[in-house]
Amino acid sequence: MFIGTEQLTHTYMPGTPFATKALHDISFNFKQGDFALIIGPSGSGKSTLIQHLNGLLKPTSGQVVFEGKNIGSDKQELLRLRKRIGLVFQMPEEQFFSETVFDEVAFAPRNQGFDENEVENKVIEALEKTGLDPNELRMRHPFQLSAGQKRLVAIAAVLSLNPEVLILDEPTVALDTAYRKNLFDLLTGLNHKEKLTIIISTHHLDEAAALADRVLVLKQGELAMFGPAVEVFGRREELYSLGLALPPVTEIMHGLAEKGMPVSTSVYTLQEARREINKVKRRDRS
Ligand SMILES: Nc1ncnc2c1ncn2[C@@H]1O[C@H](COP(=O)(O)OP(=O)(O)O)[C@@H](O)[C@H]1O
Ligand SMILES: [Mg+2]
Prior knowledge:
10 strands, binds magnesium ion, binds adenosine-5'-diphosphate, alpha/beta, six-stranded mixed β-sheet
């Protein structure tokens, strides 16, 4: 198993009148190199699950497994683990605390004890990986940036430690279409070129649907579905009943298929849809 959980259960404030069972008996595993999605409506346990995957939260019972080993609770071990498994929180820019973009991205490498030359290299490399121009932005105040740039700085801050797994909690929240596209292009590049395993959570299936290899669906803290994207997305009615509509273009393809048009319904982008429909048109003409 590369990264996953075994019978993971998490209760907040156990033993108090406020006890909330946020996760119940969750077992799954993602493979190295996966582009994985964790989907579920608000309150289904996505953020709780994600924070277990790099050891920020401790299981009430069950375990989190990375490379076949229980990640355990040894402090040194956890610090090493957090270098390899990077986590970008939801709305990460709300937690910026530095005066400059450089210092914001330099925080983690400085914390790891790298000397200033190495820190500089890591910051520049991380900013470049996100497509930001280090020379233009390094001395800027993080709050002067656009919403999309801020999100990228937050991602650079995590990439600065060269993680092997990048986890992002609802990364597209509050971003408009152009920024979303930019973000997904970046994540696709990191997944394909840098071979990073990417795990993202979302309560809204957008562009992420087209990129997913494997999908985990949460429903009120329980695992509702887990498997290859084509399998999970094939269970459209069940997803719908959870308030998780497939992307509009996929719904249209289902509509066409129901009307008897021989199109694939595993279509998540306009480009793929156009290709499918053109195929049918060509077949009709010949
Ligand atoms: N710090 C916390 N203390 C108590 N309950 C929490 C805390 N964080 C989340 N919860 C509860 O756990 C459940 C799952 O929440 P969360 O993991 O944030 O879901 P999601 O990210 O899918 O919206 C919800 O019922 C939520 O109210
Ligand atoms: Mg959440």
